[in-house]
Each structure stands twice: as C-alpha cells, then as structure tokens.
Amino acid sequence: MGKSSINIVFAQPEHAIYAEQICQLIYESALQRGTGIARRSPEYISAKITGGKAVVALDGDKLVGFSYIECWEHGDYVATSGLIVDPDYRHLGLASEIKKRTFELARLRFPFAKLFSITTSLPVMKLNTRLGYKPVTFSELTNDDEFWRGCEGCCNYDILQRNNRTMCLCTGMLYDPKTPLVKQPWWEPYVIAVKRKIKKIFRLSKSKK
Ligand SMILES: CC(C)(COP(=O)(O)OP(=O)(O)OC[C@H]1O[C@@H](n2cnc3c(N)ncnc32)[C@H](O)[C@@H]1OP(=O)(O)O)[C@@H](O)C(=O)NCCC(=O)NCCS
Fold it and tell me: CA–CA separation, 51 vs 58, rounded Å?
C-alpha cells in the first residue's frame, strides 16, 4: 500500500461513522505500548468530528489515521490530541502529515491560542518540535480542570495526582504564536561545540597553573 492513495482532510460530519473504530485503535495501541492514555468515548470523538475539530486520513473509505483539537480556557489554549495511525500504515510519514494538518486546523480556527500537547511518544515529540513546539513544565499549560480530568482514564493518573498536577510521565509541549520562530543557521551547533572546547582548554590550562 502506498502513501499516494491516502487523503488527509479536515473531518466532515459524515466521518463520524469512524468514531468507534478510532476509539478502538487508540485503546489497542495504548495497551500494546503499555503506556497510559486518556480514554475517549465514541461520542466524544464523534463530537470532535461533527464539530470540525478533527483530521482524518482515509485510504478510499478505510480510516487509517486520526487526530483532533480541543480548546480550553475559552480558546486561550488548544490541545492537539488523539493522534493515531493504523498499524498497517505506519512508517509512511502519515503521522507527520496528520500533525501538519491538525496544526493548520488549530491555527485556522484559533489563531491567537497557545497550542499544546502532552505525550510520552518520541515520534510525537519529534513532530511537535518540527512545528515549533517547545518542551515546558505543566505550569505553562492550561489550568482547566476539565482538560486534566481527561487524564483520569490513564493508568498513570495516580502519579499526576500525587504531584498536584505539576508533573507526570508525559512531556508537556507548547507552541506560543507570540514567540517568533527563530531558524537556527546550519553552522550554529559547530559554533557551540568550538566555544565549549575553547572554554574547556582554558579551564584546564588555568587549573594546571
Ligand atoms: C506514533 C505514531 C502516530 C507514528 O505514526 P507514523 O505514521 O508511523 O509516523 P511517521 O511515519 O510520520 O514518522 C514520524 C517520525 O517518527 C519516527 N517514528 C515513527 N514511529 C516511531 C517509533 N515507534 N519509534 C521511534 N520513532 C518513530 C519516524 O522515523 C519519523 O521520524 P523522521 O521524520 O525523523 O524519520 C504511530 O506509531 C501510532 O499511531 N502509535 C500509537 C498511538 C500513539 O502513540 N499516539 C501518540 C499518542 S501521544
């Protein structure tokens, strides 16, 4: 199967028929990974789809990927969540495309909102970083109780509670539209490495005296 046959689109109300399958995919993947996940009901996923807050990836009429957005604190914050790719369609770059579309949807619908996600997934951290997200402590994310209540279905919820919601196993990542993207020139890491070497040599020669 090729990536060229797959359409990644903003979800339309008729895609609500996939809600059950999406929940099942998310749940089975979480079991397989042995990590926690905030469980979502088919009704919740269906509401995201009909509310124009989701992205679906379709191979013909087969659903092969999904993600959604939700706003918090009256639209000050928007979470991008529920990213899933059908196991038979992984490693084709689909998650990357779905993430981009979801980011686009969030920016279109909530242009002034801070976007965030909490995740234990390395691919998600990688993709978020490429979109301009930065890792942050939970204090920088929404305070909305309703958002954190979503973590109740996660097997690590006791850790979050024990730490008064300040930390858990997930990494918080935030995209702040007010922070301009500074593109690092290709030579920057080399400059840093050379500076470190010089400092080290300088320190060594001082300690010998
Ligand atoms: C995580 C997931 C969405 C990735 O989907 P995918 O379509 O295979 O990802 P892509 O092909 O777009 O790959 C994106 C990047 O992640 C990397 N990646 C993908 N799967 C990976 C894995 N299991 N471990 C490490 N890196 C991985 C890819 O190499 C790629 O990096 P690159 O661009 O530097 O080459 C998919 O594995 C999945 O649905 N997992 C279960 C649900 C899940 O974990 N969701 C995230 C919850 S927060």
Answer: 19
